[in-house]
Amino acid sequence: MSDNNEYLEMFFAESEEYIMVLNDNILKLENEPNNMDVVNSMFRAAHSLKGMAATMRFNNLAELTHKMENMMDQIRNKKMQVNTEIIDLLFAGIDYVEEIVKQIKENGNDELDLDDYLAELEAKINEEPNLDDIEEVQEEELEDSNFLALTDDDIRTVNDNKKELDTVFAVNVKLNAETQFKQVRASMIFKSAAELGYIFKSIPETENVEDADLDNNLVQLILISNQSRENINEEFSSITDVEEVEMNKISLKVEDKDKKDKKEKTNKSKSVSSKFEVSSSVRVDIGKLDKLMNMIGELLINKTRLEALNIDSEGFKDVLPQLDRVTMELHHTVMQIRMEPIGVMFNRFPRMIRDLSKSSEKEIDFVMDGKQTELDRSIIDELGDPLTHLLRNAVDHGIEKPEVRRQNGKDETGTVNLKAYQKGSEIMIEVEDDGGGINVDKVVQKALDKNVVTEKEIEEMDRDKKLQLIFEPGLSTNEEVSSVSGRGVGMDVVKQTIESLDGDIYIRSEENKGTKFVISLPLTLAIQDALMVKINGEIFAIPLSAISETLMIESEEIKQVKGYDVIVLREKTIPLVDSRESLNIEIEDDSYKEKDEMPVVIVKSGGKEVGLIVGELLYQQEIVIKSLSDYLDNVKNISGATIIGDGEVALILDVRDIA
Amino acid sequence: MANIQKEAKNEKVAEKEQYLTFKVGNEIYGLKLKQAKEIIKPPKVTNVPNTKEYILGVINLRGQVIPVINLKNKLGLKEDDIKDTSKAQNKKIVVINIKDMLIGLYVDGVNEVMNLAVENIEGVADNKTGIRDEYIKGVSTFSDSLIIVLDINNLLFDQKEEKGA
Amino acid sequence: MKKILVVDDAAFMRLNLKNIIEDMGFKIVAEAENGKEGVEKYKEHQPDLVTMDITMPEMDGISATKEIKNFDDNAKVLVCSAMGQQSLVIEAIEAGAKDFIVKPFERTRIREAMDKILN
Questions:
Q1: Residues A274, A275, A276, A281: is their CA dihedral positive or negative?
Q2: Does residue C109 fall inside a structural domain?
């Protein structure tokens, strides 16, 4: 049954993709009811879903998608006008599809009572049968002249494959009735055709030519070629036993007849970009990639150990850089394989925002940027929940109702912006709204009530620090728990998730202006550049992404501000922290101040900078990040471990809580 | 009927089990052999700050980072009470596999694998070892020596202590 | 005069082909009993056309066709097939053979095929 499981896995993965495409396109359709590209790609997704469902014998799902497909067909054929009711109906359908797929995952069956929905759909489909006769006729003509039934999908593919100078021909090659080995002749015809251009479709199919039934002595094909009609004719005619070659130039239009060529062009480019979102690919089990990544990690560690051997030999010195280059390239390639555009996850949000804004009676413009930003697949998987939470919050607590916005002199329509971009070796994700913002005093009050902080601690905090209190457990500014956001997940959980990904999150907010969450994430989890330092005789790694610079300071440069040690660096005051303190290492008599000179690593986190005094700056190295065993979860200021050249374990400093 | 017979049979099978015995301080302790994965010579242990005292640190076990527990400390045996007679080269790390985790136990020496009869492992009515009751599964004797059989699960996943901490 | 190489393990077939081909006014420059020999003879004589049997010892006609095409991309190979060897013929065509004839040979078909290939 493992075969079947494999099919199921593929079925789940692809269904999810199609559901996303459908959601995305229905949403687009609502805004552009006449965009046939959108309808077509919707139709294709529904069609593919139906095909998969039928193959897997999920008849209920097949039936549902079939009906939805019918409806889309009506829209496509202009027999149905897109309106909110239709959109809602389609969305409801997708929800059913999603539910069924979920159920298949859980119980293996696709039983779900769809009768009411299907009846509703059916009624809608049968409503206003406003037939467009002309179109019907043309469609028939097209099919007639092409002999091979071409679906719109086919036509689109033909158009996509066709280059500027290409012509599409429908070719009938008739063989002599006396022909011996007709199948061989057919394969020769295909061979010539393949030399002339691209066989889009054929009867018999090229793959099955050996077993083809050629009793009618006819080979039919649709050929896309840049050759002249005469050339093609001659080529086919030169094949032994070919009696007659009949050729028809066909022009294929996907668009409705009333649209001009110009329009077609712009639509074409659009369809290309929408295709990109469901990129064609080989599916690889993420577990296998993880394993591959681990193995490369091992390779890297062994390479480092090899380097540490310091063998005095010409050959050794020659081969080492080679090994280094190959290892790096291998690492880079696997990293690339693991990367996926974040858009695959973003795509679920427009639908969510639409539903949320509808139910909360708010008008919201949802803008997404940087969908192509690539991120490690495993990170993307983890980001869904925290981003959902932040966006829900933005709609629910952030954006005000239209009348409130009007009173405050704002545009009635609020804006929620979801943005991803790369910044150095980090990926930044921002969730921003132009809503009411956060009242810092309320946050502080709550924090005091919940004993998260003391009055004294508050006194020392600036506004920005106070705002970050929102990430403490049990803090939520809105008294009422709404049905939307109040699902028991707090900002603390969001922060925890982000931190578990080795990322960081902070908030900026101004009252009546809006709120912005900024998430920073490492490009990939497994391997990072790090600075190795010595603290109290032990080697530690500090991720380079967390370091803004390193410097040597002299003890007289240390100043005191409010009883804390600071240094002034380019007119910026930066607090100093003794790394031994952060690591709870007993500081012996030789406190750093007694030294003349000391190395300082300026680390940054959440927009803050701190100077971390270490014992010694060692060297820079690529490190393979290893988990510090589940048994030791959440060790303060340590984010993981790595294995260094001599096979020993070095710990990785987590600067987030230090900075 | 069938059930009763089956149970009786099971009991017989379970009668004897193999235990790995090892030395910590002056006493001999045992744990079920099937819980132990391997015994290694202690490599360099990297100290992990901000962890409990009984966490000796972490080691590299063929590319995997695993924690090492200082059993002497975890069992609450005070260093000064014990005259450390064991030689440095006898010290070993017993790697156990528990809850899908590999954890190393730092011991003063590994003795032998013994077949201990279950009935010989008695409850500790009168625990004079100074070790918390819940860490001990029982005590068994084997050719005159006393073997303290540890409840590794309780020892490593100490609910009370976690709450207290 | 066009030069032809005949490759066939059966002497009878070679004779048969020789008669037909020479009647057509072509010259048989060499004959080979198996694919391997066929490849060697091709390299030696570089004929205008090769008739190639499929099933032969040492090296079959498909492999021989491949080797000949590797040596000379313009080589013209006419496959001689027995009945029921369709899939092998398809393979030979894939390997680069220009056309095929089916045994028992008919003069007209051979002539037709050769004319087509040589022009």
A1: positive
A2: no
Nearest to C100 among A184, A191, A210 (CB): A184
Asked if the Cβ–Cβ distance from C90 to A183 is below 8 Å, we say: yes
Which is more confidently placed, A422 or C97?
A: C97
Mind listing the pLDDT tens digit for each residue in A4-21?
A: 666 677 778 878 888 888
CB-facing half-sphere around the CA of A166: CA atoms within 13 A: 19
C119 within some domain:
no
State the residue range of the domain holding C47. Answer: 3-104
What confidence tier does A176 reach under pLDDT thresholds 50, 70, 90? confident
- The closest CB to that of A635, out of B48, B59, B156, belongs to B48
- CA nearest to B39, candidates B88, B86, B107, B137: B107
Domains of chain A in start order, with CATH, are: 2-131 (1.20.120.160), 144-252 (3.30.70.1110), 286-341 (1.10.287), 343-438+477-522 (3.30.565.10), 527-653 (2.40.50.180)
The pLDDT assigned to A535 comes to: 87
Between these two residues, A28 and A591, which has the higher pLDDT value?
A28
A184/C89 touch (CB, cutoff 8 Å), yes or no = yes
Q: Does residue C111 fall inside a structural domain? A: no
Three-state secondary-structure class, residue A205: coil
Complex-level ipTM: 0.83
Q: Where are the domains of chain B?
A: 16-164
**Of A305 and B118, the one with more pLDDT:** A305
Which runs of E-coded beta strand occur in A335-413? 339-341, 364-369, 374-376
Q: Which of residues 572-631 of A touch B (CB under 8 A)?
A: 583-585, 626-631
A504-513: average pLDDT: 90
Chains that touch B (3 or more CB pairs under 8 A): A
Taking a C-beta distance cutoff of 8 angstroms, is the pair B29, B147 a contact?
Answer: yes
Q: Buried (b) or exposed (e) across A450-466, using 16+ Cβ within 10 A?
A: eebbeeeeeeebeeeeb
Chains B and A physically touch (3 or more Cβ atom pairs below 8 Å) = yes
- A517-563 pLDDT per residue, tens: 999 887 765 677 889 998 888 899 998 888 888 888 888 888 888 87
Strand partners, B110: B22
User: Pick from A583, A641, A643: which is nearest to B49 by CB?
Assistant: A583
- What angle is formed at CA B98 by the lines to CA B97 and CA B104, rounded to 5 degrees? 55
**Position C98 in a domain:** yes
Contacts of A651 in chain B (CB under 8 A): 46, 48-49, 58
The residues, any chain, with a CB within 8 Å of residue A456's CB and separated by 6 or more, are none
Asked if A208 reaches chain C (Cβ–Cβ under 8 Å), the answer is: no
Alpha-helical runs (H) found in chain C: 11-23, 35-45, 61-71, 86-95, 107-118
Sequence-distant contacts of A327-331: CB under 8 A, at least 24 apart: A327/A296, A327/A299, A327/A300, A327/A303, A330/A296, A330/A299, A331/A296, A331/A300, A331/A527
Instruction: Provide the CATH number for the domain around residue C67.
Output: 3.40.50.2300
Contact C90 A238 (CB under 8 A): no
Q: Decide: A and C in contact? Rule: 3+ Cβ pairs under 8 Å.
A: yes
Catalytically active residues of A are 47, 69, 393
- Give contacts of A191 with chain C, Cβ < 8 Å: 93-94
Interface test with C, best of A181, A206, A211 (most C CBs within 10 A): A181
Residue A515's H or E segment, with its range, is: strand A514-522
C101 touches C8 (CB < 8 A):
no
Given the DSSP bridges, would you call strands A527-535 and A538-543 parallel, antiparallel or unpaired?
antiparallel
In the 3-class helix/strand/coil scheme, how is A416-440 assigned residue by residue?
A: EEEEEEEECCEEEEEEEECCCCCCH
Q: What's the CATH number for B16-164?
A: 2.40.50.180
Inter-chain residue contact A181 with C87, CB threshold 8 Å: no
- The arithmetic mean of pLDDT across residues A349-375, rounded, is 88
Tens-place pLDDT, residues B97-112:
888 789 999 998 888 8
